[in-house]
Amino acid sequence: MLRFRHLKVLMGGCILVGLVICGLTAPLLAPFDPQEQRLEARLQAPSWVGGSATSNWLGTDNLGRDILSRIIYGSRISLLVGATTVILAGIVGCLLGALAGYFGAGTDEVIGKVTEIFLAFPFLLLAIALMAFLGQGVINIIIALMMSRWVQYCRVVRGEVLSLKQRDFVTAAKALGGKDFYVLLRHVLPNTLASVTVVATFAMAIVIISEASLSFLGLGVPAHIPTWGSMLSEGRSYMNRAPWLTIFPGLAIFITVFGINLLGDGLRDIFDPKLRRQ
Amino acid sequence: MTKILRRIIGAVPVLLGISFLVFLLMHLAPGDPVTLLLGDDATPADVARVRSEWGLDQPLLVQYWQFISRALVGDFGRSIKFGEPVIKLVFERLPATIELATTSLLVAILISIPIGVYSAMKRDTLIDHAGTGLALIGVSLPNFWLGIMLIYFLGGQWNLLPVAGRIEYGIDIKPITKLYLVDSVLTGNLAGFWSTIKHLLMPAITLGTALAAIVTRITRSSVLEVMRQEYVMTARAKGLSERVVIWRHILRNALITVITILGLQLGALLNGSVITETVFSYPGIGDLLIQSISVRDYRLTQVLILFFGAIYFIVNMLVDILYTLVDPRIKL
Lengths: 278, 332
Hints:
By secondary structure, chain A is mostly helical.
């Protein structure tokens, strides 16, 4: 029987796959060039709204650019920033967490203190701070979000490794002459994969919302690249005349983040036997 | 007690680390901060003057030492944009943010605790799924979008609430605590109180929604956890009415966890306050931060970030310590 948690994974997975397809095939899917300005067709309502004179499904913005095409292209930035940040933060966080948990003592102490410093900043604020000083740019946004996100992985992996290193298979691997790093990378770390997947899924949702927030604040990617956050920010000034400028990019962020959270929720339910018993 | 003391002493290196990180941020900025600040047409003499005024001609560690020793006596320098001492600006804006954060917390509690408790009581029913679904929607809603939508519908289309600011133009509240709600009550200023409430409502809903979503889930799981305890079974076996079991035995115990988590969620509120205050042009420290970034007032930005970090860290530590005092089963 298909359980509720499986349904969540399925629905969330479909939304995420949809986003990936959207991003990868943007030039094929988008009906117009996202940068093409048609000033004679500016601020046109969506084509399905009564009285609209255009063929633009989701209307046009203040420069006559097609909203739907910009949303489709905008998914690329969300996806790129989301995936890259999650992977990079994952690598840094998992490695440091594994070292802290496995070697304990001084290593744990030092990594613990560094983690505490990073945790002392509310996540988005740290990213805002870094962007304020680094300046706009895709790479900068990835660095800023990565710096503020690796800590979550580090804490989870450290906890897992602390308990895993006591297990018999680790003792056996060591008894067979396995070097510390070999045992850690080959035997211990792969066993943290389930938890790391859950952390990564939720992190992806948070990173996508954060990228949109930074772009909304004008601290994200340069203005000429279409992103959902900057579309929202630009659309604000035309809120009363053309609400579709803000409604649709916001919906795109919401559906994406909702889907990924749904996936994360379902994965956690599946991986966490304690929850399953509840 | 010694454990608490040790915890406080242990916080010192972390606070120093925070300040060092914030100090380093200034040096991350591409180009020379002084040239950026003064513009390209500044004369070399001006640049040299500001540089030595800020101590930027000193070695990095000396600069850090100066930064820390000044910070310890509350001297954070002047804001370039506003021309006033940075610390004065921060304390002028702080009450607005405290008022917004507290109201949002209240909104979050009022929404989340009933839904969380009811969800747990009706576990695995349609109501439960609807409750958890709502919570999932709440965490997934970008708060800037929610704020804009509220402004559009409640402020623009239906004209129910004011869309920006902290109080109506022309209404004055005699400042005592600078918290408008408190001051208007203390001075019996009904018009001021009503205007403040109206201005707070939309930002508080915007800021409180994500928190409400998190707290709903925690309340639900906490109630479920308590429901499985033996003392609940004992209470039922004694023949107590279901109402007494729920109110006295389940809720009381479940809510201890929830209240602690609420304290620890301050970070989420600080995060959100930056965006919410920007959307609603609400004059708090979040709005000040974004303003300082947009005009490249690096000094102000640096101090605000340090301030956010230190507050967040200290409050989290205090919540931790309080928790151990309230519940002796928890060890630091």
